[in-house]
Specification:
The complex is a heterotetramer, with two copies of chain A (155 residues) and two copies of chain B (83 residues).
Chain A (H helix, E strand, L loop, with lengths): L1 E4 L5 H9 L7 E8 L3 E4 L2 E4 L2 E6 L3 H16 L2 E9 L1 E3 L4 E9 L2 H18 L2 E7 L2 E4 L4 H8 L6
Parallel strand pairs in A: 1-6
Antiparallel strand pairs in A: 2-8, 3-4, 5-7, 5-9, 6-8, 9-10
Chain B lengths: L1 E4 L1 H7 L3 E3 L9 H9 L3 H7 L6 E4 L2 E2 L11 E5 L6
Parallel strand pairs in B: 1-5
Antiparallel strand pairs in B: 1-2, 3-4, 3-5
Helix pairs in contact in B: 1-3
The chains are: A alpha+beta (155), B alpha+beta (83).
Chain lengths: 155, 83, 155, 83
């Protein structure tokens, strides 16, 4: 399941829903992305007051659904969930939740890593950070591209 | 053809969305970007470095040779930074 | 932090505690192990009514604390948590929670995988499954040893 | 010396814990296992296949050559299956 929303999410409730009535789940892997109060900038680390996540409504849902389907093709998953927020978020706020459940732990852990690597490089979101010197769009990182490419060879 | 701009491309061009009618000779993503770039200083600034401009045609990533046609929804944006 | 307990745990509350007041956490990776209602047996898959987790009090806490310290040496973690239950558990029950938080997602994801791989092979727990043919001690799996060995080369 | 047994070793030997006084010649894990194996049928059954017996001395994993001494806490158990 995928959700793109402004509201926060309740991790305990999401996990409970994801695993409810499925007794073949042996492992549930998850990743939660949070807003930090510092970010690397061209001149070292800069304090961040807040950030605004812009996205491309329509394409976002399409790409998240595609990659969730791809994860389910590559690994024998019992359940999967991607929630990605947009709008203004403050340090400590949750940005994204990726959760994957499988009979076996390795499938859950690998597919969780796959999903987060992928959505870092393909999901159409952009972060605008509020810094002391004004709003600054976050640059994409080469290391994110490299992380996503690891998975391409297997496709 | 509908064009959407996101993140700093939206800021430089000064609009989030517009309807355009490029000439019939504009049949690819690359040709469309060339045509847009000539529309004014904001466009020129936004499209100066094509390396950092990503394009989606009808909500799918598209390379410079991808066909564009009337009725398409085209989006221009920088490399994504979600997650 | 490590905890060895008979009681269940509340994942949402644990995550909230783990990330509270730390604005340098950019990623929180976790793994939850659950009891399945089927298990591989010598004659194919067998239904499991419940399982009892036995452990070695004293050594368990010692080994979990050691491996948590090792993860904190290998990765720049902001927070980490291992909760492992013992006693009788039924299908769908949570067995274990591993959670790691870091400024960057890769450190969180890798250290989470490291901890779960490690505790599968080194933490002194044993599973007794209730099957239609009686109680059966779960055999250790070679694949778990192989998973843990991946990390040895880096130590 | 205190010996603890876990999982199926406990079942085969019939006790979870006992105090033993091996002769002074028993100075290593391997010698201790040999001595225990000779104590009865349950011990012999439990220790027949040393490949599946793990040993901890004072709560640390120990190989066959590890020293054992009076006052040690020794634990015998099968390969672990937690997580």
């Amino acid at each position: 399941m995928i959700r793109v929303q402004a509201e926060d999410f309740d991790i305990g409730a999401e996990f409970a829903r994801l695993t409810a009535d499925n007794r073949n789940i042996g492992g549930l892997a998850s990743f939660v992305g949070l807003v930090r109060d510092m970010a690397p900038s061209r001149t070292g680390n800069a304090p961040i007051g807040a950030m605004t996540l812009e996205h491309y409504p329509g394409m976002t849902e399409k790409k998240l659904a595609e990659i969730e389907a791809e994860a389910n093709r590559r690994w024998p998953l019992e359940a999967s969930l991607i929630i990605h927020r947009y709008g203004r978020l403050e340090p400590g706020d949750r940005i994204v939740l990726v959760a994957t459940a499988s009979a076996h732990r390795q499938a859950a852990l690998e597919s969780c890593q796959f999903l987060i690597d992928w959505l870092k490089t393909k999901a159409p979101f952009w972060k605008l950070e509020e810094t002391p010197s004004g709003g600054q769009w976050v640059d994409a990182r080469d290391s994110d591209d490299a992380a996503a490419k690891r998975w391409a060879a297997e496709s | 053809m509908k064009i959407l701009y996101f993140a700093w491309l939206k800021g430089k061009i000064g609009t989030a969305e517009e309807e355009v009618q490029p000439p019939a000779s504009v049949t690819t993503v690359a040709a469309l970007l060339d045509w847009l770039e000539a529309r004014g200083a904001g466009y020129a600034a936004a499209l100066a470095n094509r390396e950092v401009v990503r394009v989606a045609v009808n909500q799918e990533y598209a390379g410079p040779d991808h066909r564009v046609a009337q009725g398409d929804e085209i989006a221009l944006f920088p490399p994504v930074t979600g997650g």
